[in-house]
Amino acid sequence: MNSKEHIAFIRFKSWPLANQIVEGVIRDQFPDHVIDLIDVTALIMRRPDIVLINTIATVLLYSTDILAGRKKFKLAFWRTPYIFQQIRRLIRKRLADGNYSFSFQMQSLFDGSAPSTPHFLYTDHTHLENLNYRHGKKDLYSQKWIRLEKEIYQHATLNFVRSSNVARSLVKDYNCPANKVILAYAGSNAKVSDVRTENRDESRQHIIFDGLDWKRKGGHELVEAFKLVLHKHPNAHLTIVGAKPELQIPNCTVIGPLPADKLNQYYQWASVFCLPTYQEPFGIVFIEAMTARLPIVATRVGAIPELVQDGNNGRLVEPGDIQGLANALSELLDDPEMSHLFGERSYQLTRERYSWQAVARQFHQNILSALQ
Prior knowledge:
Blueprint: E1 6-11, H1 17-29, E2 34-39, H2 40-45, H3 48-67, H4 73-76, H5 81-96, E3 100-106, E4 119-123, H6 143-155, E5 158-161, H7 164-174, E6 181-183, E7 206-211, H8 219-232, E8 237-242, E9 252-256, H9 264-269, E10 272-275, H10 284-291, E11 296-299, H11 304-307, E12 314-317, H12 322-334, H13 336-352, H14 356-371
Parallel strand pairs: 1-2, 1-3, 3-4, 4-5, 5-6, 7-8, 7-10, 8-9, 10-11, 11-12
């Protein structure tokens, strides 16, 4: 590689945790380079003129959807053609002031590319992938913004993606050449132990849910399914991590939000992980549960069928299928040996595919090849 001194690492903001983890991966894989962090949110918020104009643009473009509750202002704000162009202008100005080997962008909400600088993207979604979800069409933003989104993928030297469904969307929905799409997968964000402890007992009938967005993650459906499970398994227990709904049902503990380093103890006590989500671009929480050697019960949406192989390391049901969800949970609670087998297969998948070490190899190999 014709090495230069700096790499521009471009992210929307420091959170989610994957942004920090991937930054560390790039640092480790290219130790002879200095990483320059570019936070898009900080760039924009330092410009009150842009914020004001885009606030007006957001209202003009999305006011009907915002007032009807179909869209949230804070999300729509970042999906106007105006803000897209301003972000691109500011990033290109910033890159022009440096001498970069390449730029590396997290997610596909903006175009972080600049002419003459090799540019790499890592994303877990495309906007048009929403069309593959139930009622996904109503979640779409402006067609003008979607046309600009296409330029993100076209301008990238390579597009690294976390799942096959997103790879297909890039090729089918955005006419991105297949040789510019690399399936790199992802690893676990939380430090979840893969060591089976004395706490682990599949016969304990302990189900764990981990998700912040209670409605989108299918929390209500899980509660209704759990009520059915209790008829057959009165000793079953449900622990809810992340979300904090007010529930009045037996054998249920609501923990609420937890820092990533506190999750491990709850995974170690669990015997089944369940997240019956309606929409999931990727779902790193599944990898965390799989790393902890848990069998999975989930829904057949997004990237989940690639993570959870029905009958191999878990069970899949259709979104909203409460009876199917109860049946899948009862099946695993009925058969601790099968639960154990599914959990071991979950762990094996993380060893082979879903680890940041494996992702790092994909980044390093393909970036070097592209630069050469």
